[in-house]
């Protein structure tokens, strides 16, 4: 049974209760890694771009593993953010193939590109849960999962627009809380579409 948007957000808040500090710490750690790559890109553009391309898949996989662990109340350590590097080759290939497919669809029009991004949005989650799966199999499974769910996932992101506006005041400090909140909600969406059941949290707003 599909959970409502408010139920998914409520489940995320329930998972984050008592884990906000850890969630923010993981998010900040990922931002620090991105900052290092940006600095390298500024100092040595060619090397910085290359490093960014090579590690983006591992960082994305590690973040998803971390926030999925929080969503499932597995008490992951903040170091889980680095876990994607244990599947470095697969994470890079997945990052490359998703980027390539999305780019090719975007060449047609912006909207097909957005649809493609939604179609492949669950691939990292699938790889996290099935580390032995092939890259193209993860992409195919994501595409299958998102049949009938792309619009639902898109609207879920839109439900955070109000929070995003508030988080920007002052100086964007609120994003330290909002980004983990969105990430854990996305993890609950994945568990919902894969049939991993969880009772909705009591509060929903």
Automatic annotation (TrEMBL):
Transmembrane residue ranges: 20-44, 50-71, 92-118, 154-178
Keywords, comma-separated and alphabetical: Membrane, Transmembrane, Transmembrane helix
InterPro entries registered for this protein in UniProt: DUF975
Pfam families attached to this UniProt entry: DUF975
Membrane is among the record's keywords: yes
Residues making up the signal peptide according to the UniProt record: none
PANTHER family: MEMBRANE PROTEIN, MEMBRANE PROTEIN-RELATED
Protein name (record): Uncharacterized membrane protein
Organism from which the protein derives: Paenibacillus catalpae
């Amino acid at each position: 049974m599909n959970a409502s948007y408010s139920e998914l957000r409520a489940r995320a808040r329930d998972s984050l209760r008592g884990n906000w500090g850890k969630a923010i710490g993981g998010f900040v750690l990922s931002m620090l890694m991105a900052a290092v790559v940006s600095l390298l890109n500024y100092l040595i553009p060619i090397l910085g771009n290359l490093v960014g391309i090579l590690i983006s898949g591992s960082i994305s996989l590690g973040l998803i593993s971390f926030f999925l662990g929080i969503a499932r109340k597995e008490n992951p350590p903040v170091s889980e953010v680095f876990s994607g590097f244990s599947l470095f080759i697969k994470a890079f290939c997945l990052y490359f193939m998703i980027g390539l497919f999305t780019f090719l669809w975007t060449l047609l029009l912006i909207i097909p590109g957005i649809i493609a991004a939604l179609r492949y949005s669950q691939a990292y989650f699938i790889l996290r849960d099935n580390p032995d799966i092939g890259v193209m199999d993860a992409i195919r499974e994501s595409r299958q999962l998102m049949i009938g769910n792309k619009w639902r996932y898109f609207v879920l992101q839109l439900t955070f627009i109000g929070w995003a506006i508030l988080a920007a005041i002052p100086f964007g400090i609120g994003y330290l809380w909002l980004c983990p909140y969105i990430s854990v909600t996305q993890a609950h969406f994945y568990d919902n579409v894969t049939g991993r059941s969880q009772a909705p949290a009591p509060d929903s707003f």
